[in-house]
TrEMBL record, chains A, B:
<dbReference type="GO" id="GO:0003677">
    <property type="term" value="F:DNA binding"/>
</dbReference>
<dbReference type="InterPro" id="IPR046335">
    <property type="entry name" value="LacI/GalR-like_sensor"/>
</dbReference>
<dbReference type="Pfam" id="PF13377">
    <property type="entry name" value="Peripla_BP_3"/>
</dbReference>
<keyword id="KW-0238">DNA-binding</keyword>
<feature type="domain" description="HTH lacI-type">
    <location>
        <begin position="3"/>
        <end position="57"/>
    </location>
</feature>
<dbReference type="InterPro" id="IPR028082">
    <property type="entry name" value="Peripla_BP_I"/>
</dbReference>
<protein>
    <submittedName>
        <fullName>LacI family DNA-binding transcriptional regulator</fullName>
    </submittedName>
</protein>
<dbReference type="InterPro" id="IPR010982">
    <property type="entry name" value="Lambda_DNA-bd_dom_sf"/>
</dbReference>
<keyword id="KW-0805">Transcription regulation</keyword>
<dbReference type="InterPro" id="IPR000843">
    <property type="entry name" value="HTH_LacI"/>
</dbReference>
<dbReference type="Pfam" id="PF00356">
    <property type="entry name" value="LacI"/>
</dbReference>
<keyword id="KW-0804">Transcription</keyword>
Length: 334, 334
DNA sequence: ATGAAAGCGCTAACAG
DNA sequence: CTGTTAGCGCTTTCAT
């Protein structure tokens, strides 16, 4: 059995409360007793029981993290960022994968809520109402989604899309196709906003191809329709879709970027490895995870949380140019 | 504030102990009182506080899961399996990513140990001694690693490698190169055992190229040495390495599989998407995660854990043939 | 079948 | 500065 605070107290010849103070409010106890307590604790390998502490302080030192699908490489990156930042503050992370099931999401959140100080919901599938209800029960930080009154860290989707369009227009493209993500996706909706504005400003034509699963297969499915638009460049909801699209284009003998240019979003590891390497708008995924933890901790510690909830961060995307984008037409080249 | 057991008791007009019994030992209480308690609990949205329960029962209903690096696509799959199986048994999962740091591993385990009933250590980097020490403090299940006296779920590395060799030999290959993983990797060591035996049995020659990082860059680094061996086929530690190798070969103008055949291990999602698609030994990663949870739960519930610790599962690998393997030489073809 | 009481490990008042 | 007391929310004897 692991050592308790009473074991340490007995060994150090003090009361349990002194041990508690010596360990968590060092300034308040006599230096020599503190040293004695510390020594006893070390000798017994004492680690306070967080659950017991949480019972009385109301703070568990744990946070929850909910993601829709770890198989999408976007999320492990965010998780990694959350992990790293949480560890630095000595908080432990409960992870839940909802398998893209919006209902499971609500259930998991409720089950976890009791054991955590707050939760980070990553690209949640739940409805705005459910999210609001959840935020009522526990402190919540949203990643990649904006809901009134809830703290969030998002990406600058509009800015990222502007960069992509600027790049393509500079290469001579005037007709750009957009392969959208899931119908309900918050970020897909915002990306199209940026795309539309950028196309208008630069005199390019934007053609929406529709909504597809945010997966490799989704990209395969979208490819033929994208080609049929007659566009010379395609921007996809994310890199996974772009890579699926690339595969289908290759199978059809359509050369990228000679016949068609392709731009993705995310910059997952795979994008660098695809052939041709994928031009993409890099989203600082890991950083988003770190910031989400900081935001959550800040809200938890704030005397007036509302002031912080207002200050949400929007992280810039960065255009990474690789081989999948080229001039508008093979024929246009010398 | 969330409802407590006393709130439910008051509303139902019974004592807290009755509520406790009604909810967790339904057979023991009068049917009508049970109904009343249930109704009260539902109305208040009562969820028992697990931390408080754990304090007295000694069981938290939580498990810990430690992985070395979520950026390696192998691990998210295992995590997903663990998640799914844990959720089915209503247990919550603490996740920790150690960033390949063996020392951080030990520290994280100790920090988590107090809050969980047991831990799943996935391909741990820690030394055998550290692992044994950890297993002393808390119940442990190892994934992809074998240590005396600790429950584990492993993959049949030898069998997988035999399948790979049989496939290559059938295609006419007689000289096969092996690109190993990290020097300390348990699975790398076991894969080479299977490779050696299979090569001996089939009269093929096996050439070890050395140890490389289990990453894309590791594969890039290994490519030229693999080519220099004069082998007609290369088997790599994992798919990530194989894909890096593919990239370097392509850059050098070496055609796969015409000039060289390549086989990976794992069957990560990326392998299907690479060009050429990668022949690989599929490891049931997600299943391994599920089994790890089952094993852990079984050990926790067992009156005599040792009987279970003995019965570890070894999951078979499955050869998935794709485009990266072909006949021994371009010249050999008609 | 139910209630009262005790206590899991810890911290926070309150005395001293 | 330190010890004593009480109690977080829950389960589990022990009575009744």
């Amino acid at each position: 059995m692991a050592a308790t605070i009473r074991d340490v107290a007995r060994l150090a010849g003090v009361s349990p409360s002194t041990v508690s103070r010596a360990l968590s409010m060092p300034g308040v106890v006599n230096a020599t007793t503190r040293a004695r307590v510390q020594a006893a604790a070390d000798r017994l390998g004492y680690e306070p029981n967080r659950a017991a502490r949480g019972l009385i302080t109301g703070r568990t030192g744990n946070i929850g993290l909910v993601v829709p699908d770890l198989a999408n490489p976007f999320f492990p990156s965010v998780v990694k960022g959350v992990q790293a930042r949480a560890r630095a503050s000595d908080v432990a992370v409960f992870l839940a994968d909802t398998d893209e099931d919006a209902r499971a999401e609500a259930g998991l959140v409720r089950a976890l809520a009791k054991q955590v100080d707050g939760m980070i919901l990553c690209s949640p599938r739940a409805s705005q109402e459910d999210l609001a209800a959840i935020a009522q029960e526990t402190t919540v930080v949203l990643v990649n989604r904006l809901v009134e009154g809830i703290a969030a860290v998002t990406f600058d989707n509009e800015g990222g899309m502007r960069q992509a369009v600027a790049h393509l227009v500079a290469l001579g493209h005037r007709k750009i196709a957009w392969v959208g993500g899931p119908q309900t996706s918050w970020s897909s909706a915002h990306r199209i906003l940026g795309l539309t504005a950028a196309a208008r400003d630069s005199g390019a034509e934007l053609i929406e191809v529709g909504h597809f699963a945010p997966t490799y297969d989704g990209g395969m499915a979208a490819a033929d329709q994208a080609v049929a638009t007659g566009a010379t460049a395609v921007v996809t909801y994310n890199d996974l879709v772009a890579i699926g699209l690339l595969a289908r284009l290759h199978a059809r003998g359509i050369s990228v970027p000679d016949d068609l240019s392709v731009v993705g979003v995310d910059d997952i590891a795979m994008s660098r490895m695809s052939r041709p390497a994928l031009t993409t708008v890099r989203l600082p995924k890991q950083r988003a995870g770190e910031i989400a933890v900081e935001l959550l901790l800040a809200v938890l510690d704030a005397p007036d949380p509302d002031t912080i909830v207002g200050s949400r961060g929007s992280l810039p995307g960065e255009l990474i140019v690789r081989d999948s984008t080229g001039v508008a037409h093979r024929q246009a080249r010398p």
